[in-house]
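Team,

Forwarding the record for the chain on the shared tracking sheet. I've put the sequence and predicted structure together so nobody has to dig through attachments.
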Amino acid sequence: MIHAALSDEIKITLAKAAQAAGTTDIESDVIDMSGYEGVLFLVTFGAITAGAVTSIKAQQGAASNLSDAADLEGTGIAVADDDDGQTFVIDVYKPRERYVRAVVDRATQNAVVGEIYALLYGAKELPVTNTVANTLTLERHTSPAEGTA
């Protein structure tokens, strides 16, 4: 088996830019799973006000705009009001529908949501391209020599 760099085998997508403090729900961009087996969502948090009721979950649907979005059973994760600066992960392997997204439920008190990244894996075609202008820059190095970075 030939092994490639991890960045050759996953697609890294900024699914939602950081959001200011608030109590409204945040939905990531819709992720098209065509050509991939799974997606791992990384959801980061900033300051969370004491008493905030916050959680994350994943949804899926067949419509490209997720107008038919349904929660995925068991994907809900509670975020405590003292989880400031932490990152939460939901990994959805082989979703039953083509489109998925992450959702941050915010209620009662302010919670700052940092970036939401989607890492798509199990690509049917390799290598995967990850450089996106003004969003993501990737450098890959194979067996680099020691020296000035």
